[in-house]
Amino acid sequence: MVALVAEAHAFGRPPRGQPVALQGGHWLGVCGMGAARVRDMGLDLASRGVRTLVSFGTCGGLAPGLPPGSLLCPRMVRDEEGGCYQTAVPPDLASRLPAARTADVLLSVAAPVCDVRRKEDHFRRYGAAGVDMESATLAQVASEEGLRFLALRAIVDPFDEPLPERVLAAVDEWGRPRTMALLRVLATDPATWAAVARLRRHFSKAQGSLAAAAAVMTRGGPL
After folding, report:
1. pLDDT range class, residue 222, cuts 50, 70, 90
2. Cβ neighbours for 82, distance < 8 A, ≥ 6 positions apart
């Protein structure tokens, strides 16, 4: 399960909304942002006989020492309401994905964590290495359906860098920029240009990590 179109490019250019079959017995669903979309896609994938639901994409960094592009495979996913879900980390992960780092916790939240102080607070409160907006919802579906769950997330923004909140508000549910809204932000806040350029560089590194992971996941059997 992938939320954003740009994240799904790791698998080529799959369609949005409708799951597609990949090689190696995998299915891919690109669902867009939002818990309801994630849940619907998770249930759709579960109905197709999959054994493992995988939350695949990018995340923000909360722990020091994780540069952009770092690929996290958490042992546990938590949410802000106290939900806690164990993941099925493959025993051969290190040999198949040597660049992946096992982390204790990935935190899922309802809204982007843009401010550095909030990142610090979430790191202290939850002990999470990274933060996303989809994994806990998909983990809950896996639990309800009796399926294994795995998360693979590549860091975009490290722990000590804020996200340009106004820019994030100028994208649609698929992560695509709303051109006019983005231009208005850039025109009224020229300092945002530097933040956008930095974010693009970081995202490119994350995409590289995701592409490498996608190649491993779809070559032969599943992780």
Report:
1. low
2. none
